[in-house]
User: Which sequence fits this backbone?
C-alpha cells in the first residue's frame, strides 16, 4: 500500500512571487472576513479605491462609515437576476453585466437594505431606480467578494474620498484594502496553494478501509477533504473517484429534500466493494452558495421555485462551484486517470478541461422519494444530469 506523506515544507528561500501570491490570497480572505462581520473593505482598482460593504449585514456603523469616507453617496449593486425582481422588470444593461446599480435614498435603513438584498426577508415598500454602475471591474469584483464570503451578491459601493496613497487612507481609517484583480483571480490562485495538513484512519460503516486527508489553502480558508478507500494506486488502473460537495442537511441530518446523503454513503460503499477509490469532499455547500443561502433557497422552493430558480432569485448563478480545487487535490494524490462516479456531465468536462483524463463516467443514481422527486427532475431537465 502506498504511504501518503505530507508535503515537504516550503524552502526557506521561497521565491518572491510565491510569497507575494500568498499575501494576496490572505488579503482577499481578510476582506472577506470584514464583509462577514458587517464592516466595509476597500477595493483597489485602476480607477481608485472603492468602499464595499455587504448589504445584508450593513448596520448603522457601516452606513455611517460609507457616508463619511465616500466621495459620493453609496449605490446598491445587485446581481441582474435579483435586480430584475426588485425592479419588477428586466434589469437594464447587457445580459453579461455582473451587477446593476440602484440609487438609495438618504437615510436608508438596514431593514430596507436587507429587504432589497434578500427575497426571503420581510418586504419593505421601496422601489429604487437604476443609475450608472461604477466602472469595471468594480462591480464584478465587489459581487465576487460577497460571493466568496458566502453572502448574498448584494453590496453597497462608494468611491473612497482618498487623495493619493490608498494604503495610507486604509490605514488611517482601519480598512482592509484588497486589489480587485486579486478578488477576481482568487478561485484560480487558491487552488494552486492547497497543502496536505492532516491524515487519519477513519473506518466507517460504509468503508472500513478509509483514510481522511485534509487539504488547506494558503490563505487560511476552508479545508477540503479526500476520503481514500483502500489503495487506489495498487494496480495502476484508473480508480473510482467521486467529487462530492458537502451537504450538511443531506449528509449529516439525512434530509429527504436531496439525494446527497445516499450519494455520499453509496459512493463509499461502492468503493469498498471495489476495494479502492477516492471521494473528494469539497467545501461547496449548496452548489457553492453556502449553507445559509441554501436554506434561503429552500424557503423559495417552498414558495414554488425550483432549484435553479431559487438560486437565481437570490442573485446567484445556477451553479457557483469551481472544480479547480478537485483537480489540485487529485494532482497532489498522484491521480491523473480516473473513472468518475457521477450523473453530472459538467464534472466530467471540468476535470477534462483541467488535464484529468476521465476514462469512464460511472452512473450514480438512487430512487426518488416524495420530498425530492421535483429536485431530481430539475437536475435532469435544467442541469442536464444523466439518470
Assistant:
Amino acid at each position: 500500500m502506498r504511504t501518503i506523506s505530507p508535503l515537504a515544507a516550503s524552502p526557506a528561500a521561497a521565491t518572491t512571487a510565491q510569497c507575494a501570491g500568498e499575501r494576496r490570497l490572505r488579503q482577499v480572505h481578510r476582506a472577506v472576513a470584514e464583509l462577514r462581520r458587517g464592516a466595509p473593505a476597500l477595493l483597489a482598482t485602476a480607477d481608485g479605491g472603492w468602499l464595499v460593504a455587504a448589504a445584508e449585514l450593513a448596520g448603522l456603523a457601516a452606513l455611517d462609515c460609507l457616508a463619511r469616507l465616500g466621495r459620493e453617496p453609496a449605490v446598491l449593486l445587485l446581481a441582474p437576476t435579483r435586480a430584475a425582481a426588485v425592479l419588477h422588470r428586466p434589469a437594464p444593461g447587457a445580459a453579461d453585466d455582473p451587477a446593476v446599480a440602484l440609487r438609495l435614498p438618504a437615510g436608508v435603513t438596514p431593514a430596507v437594505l436587507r429587504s432589497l438584498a434578500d427575497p426571503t426577508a420581510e418586504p419593505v415598500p421601496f422601489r429604487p431606480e437604476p443609475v450608472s454602475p461604477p466602472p469595471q471591474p468594480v462591480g464584478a469584483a465587489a459581487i465576487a467578494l460577497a460571493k466568496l464570503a458566502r453572502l448574498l451578491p448584494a453590496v453597497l459601493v462608494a468611491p473612497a474620498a482618498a487623495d493619493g496613497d490608498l494604503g495610507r487612507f486604509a490605514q488611517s481609517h482601519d480598512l482592509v484594502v484588497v486589489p480587485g484583480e486579486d478578488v477576481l483571480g482568487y478561485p484560480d490562485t487558491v487552488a494552486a496553494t492547497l497543502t496536505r495538513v492532516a491524515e487519519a484512519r477513519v473506518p466507517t460503516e460504509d468503508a472500513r478501509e478509509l483514510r481522511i486527508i485534509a487539504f488547506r489553502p494558503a490563505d487560511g480558508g476552508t479545508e477540503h477533504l479526500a476520503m481514500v478507500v483502500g489503495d487506489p494506486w495498487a494496480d495502476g488502473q484508473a480508480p473510482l473517484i467521486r467529487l462530492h460537495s458537502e451537504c450538511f442537511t443531506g449528509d449529516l441530518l439525512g434530509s429527504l429534500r436531496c439525494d446527497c446523503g445516499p450519494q455520499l454513503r453509496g459512493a463509499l460503499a461502492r468503493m469498498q466493494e471495489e476495494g479502492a477509490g477516492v471521494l473528494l469532499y469539497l467545501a461547496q455547500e449548496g452548489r457553492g452558495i453556502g449553507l445559509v443561502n441554501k436554506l434561503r433557497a429552500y424557503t423559495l422552493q417552498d414558495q414554488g421555485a425550483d432549484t435553479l430558480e431559487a438560486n437565481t432569485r437570490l442573485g446567484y448563478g445556477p451553479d457557483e462551484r469551481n472544480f479547480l480545487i478537485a483537480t489540485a487535490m487529485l494532482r497532489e494524490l498522484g491521480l491523473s486517470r480516473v473513472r468518475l462516479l457521477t450523473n453530472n456531465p459538467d464534472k466530467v468536462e471540468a476535470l477534462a478541461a483541467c488535464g484529468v483524463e476521465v476514462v469512464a463516467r460511472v452512473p450514480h443514481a438512487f430512487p426518488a422519494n416524495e420530498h425530492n422527486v421535483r429536485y431530481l427532475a430539475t437536475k435532469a431537465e435544467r442541469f442536464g444530469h444523466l439518470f
About this structure: Residues 16-36 form the longest helix (21 residues). The longest strand covers residues 48-54.
